[in-house]
Write a structure and sequence with these properties.
The chain is mainly α and 450 residues long. The chain is built from 18 helices and 2 strands. 62% of the residues lie in helices and 1% in strands.
């Protein structure tokens, strides 16, 4: 009589199954029909949730679910007016012929964003009948939201760093939906264009990436936080002369967009790119536990700027120079052959995304003031960064959750601010620790080549 084949076993562990209370030669007890169905269902679910082949269908379901969620939010949650009417008032003055940035004002103050913001919201001004058609404006921003999420999912897919089961976490942010759909801020629009730039980098379309980066920067100045990471990627991939060429592309686009404001160029530059601007303490989400007098002081601002520069230098030397074989090898190649790429092999998608997102996180960690809409600067990046850390899975999931919690406490408190700072710092430290293996891999590869 032929023996029945053994039951299929899912490989949760490489350890052999140990059977107790029976001789080693004795066959294991057959499962009941119900037990076998449950076992097989769990095995299929585990495989589907972790397999790279499941990424696309899970991502599609996430997009569909979030599109439905956006419609529910627009329908059932009231819109809150903060800056939309001011944006419309400012661009209305521009459309009427005003070119002096100091005179482009609205209910909440003067215009403090670059020219790309003016052109973008002028377009929205026309589409929404001067900003009065709020339901249509919200639908437009719902479209921007889904586009942004789609770009993020495409970036995640190229990196192969985030498992499919974690993707639904991307749509659970209450604050991010509010920023997009109920506030109509410009921050998430700038990030949407930035994500398009990151995605083109992954396809090695350097010129397109530089153009898109400059367009994102023209909407809001915070995109400068990604610049150290972008410069690193372009230097390694295109060499010093390539970096210079792409830098000139970015500057040229800024100059072209600013053309209408050149009669009052100083007013434009000091308003759109005011690096000395200090945000109000009352609205800050981070550093709330610091006394207001200290918060607004010059030494505190200088200390944060110093920490920002030191962290960028630290990551540059200890992590971002790895593909070139270290800082000394990078300097030698830059000096000897400035017209050639610094790296011998194309940079991996994970390294590119990790470098840009980490550059941004460093800036956020060291920012003196973060207002609630600034959460969109990295809301869709924390999950990716968490999976670059060596932390256990519960910690990887807890860090984005803690960050989300802190951004949803209104008004911010000493405790919520401390949680945000600790979570951001732990995330950054984990990214640095997680890159140790990547550095070892690059060193071993260089030794084989040499």
């Amino acid at each position: 009589m032929a023996r029945s084949p053994p039951a299929k076993k899912v490989a949760f562990s490489d350890e052999p199954t140990v059977m107790f209370d029976q001789p080693a030669s004795e066959s294991p007890k057959p499962r009941s029909a119900v037990s076998q169905v449950v076992h097989d269902a769990l095995a299929i679910g585990y495989d589907w949730a972790t397999s790279p082949f499941s990424f696309v269908p899970v991502a599609a379901l996430v997009l569909l679910a979030d599109a439905a969620l956006c419609q529910a939010i627009i329908r059932y949650i009231p819109y809150t007016e903060i800056d939309w009417s001011t944006y419309m008032q400012q661009v209305a003055l521009f459309l009427s012929g005003e070119q002096d940035y100091t005179k482009l004002r609205g209910d909440t103050g003067p215009l403090v964003y670059p020219a790309g913001h003016v052109f973008l919201y002028s377009f929205l001004h026309r589409l929404t009948r001067g900003g009065t058609d709020l339901p249509f404006a919200q639908q437009l921003f719902a479209g921007f939201y889904i586009l942004s999420l789609g770009l993020v999912l495409a970036i995640y897919r190229k990196t192969h760093s985030v498992p499919p089961y974690a993707l639904p976490l991307l749509i659970l942010s209450k604050r991010l939906h509010s920023i997009f759909l109920l506030r109509l801020f410009n921050d998430p629009l700038a990030l949407t264009v930035l994500y398009a730039s990151v995605l083109t980098l992954l396809y090695r379309r350097w010129n397109a990436a530089a153009i898109l980066y400059s367009l994102a920067l023209s909407i809001k100045m915070n995109i400068l936080l990604f610049l150290p990471g972008l410069a690193t990627v372009l230097l390694l991939s295109t060499g010093p002369l390539g970096l210079l060429r792409h830098g000139l592309t970015i500057l040229t686009i800024q100059a072209v967009l600013a053309q209408p404001f050149t009669p009052h160029l100083r007013a434009y530059l000091t308003s759109a790119f005011d690096l000395s601007r200090v945000f109000l303490y009352r609205w800050t989400v981070n550093w709330r536990f610091v006394p207001e007098r200290t918060f607004l002081s010059r030494p505190f601002g200088a200390a944060l700027l110093g920490a920002h520069l030191a962290l960028l230098l630290w990551f540059g030397v200890t992590r971002w120079a790895h593909p070139a074989g270290g800082v000394s090898a990078l300097v030698k190649r830059v000096w000897k052959r400035p017209e050639l790429p610094v790296v011998r092999e194309p940079l991996g998608a994970r390294f590119i995304v990790n470098t840009l997102f980490t550059s941004n996180l460093v800036g956020i960690l060291c920012a003196r003031s973060l207002h609630y809409q600034f959460y969109s600067w990295y809301a869709h990046q924390t999950l990716f960064l968490a999976f670059q850390t060596p932390y256990p899975l519960p910690i990887k999931l807890a860090l984005p959750t803690a960050i989300e919690y802190a951004w949803n406490v209104y008004p911010s408190t000493d405790a919520s601010s401390a949680v945000l700072l600790a979570a951001n710092a732990a995330l950054l430290a984990g990214v640095w620790l997680g890159d140790r293996g990547e550095g070892k891999k690059h060193r071993e590869g260089r030794e084989k080549v040499e």
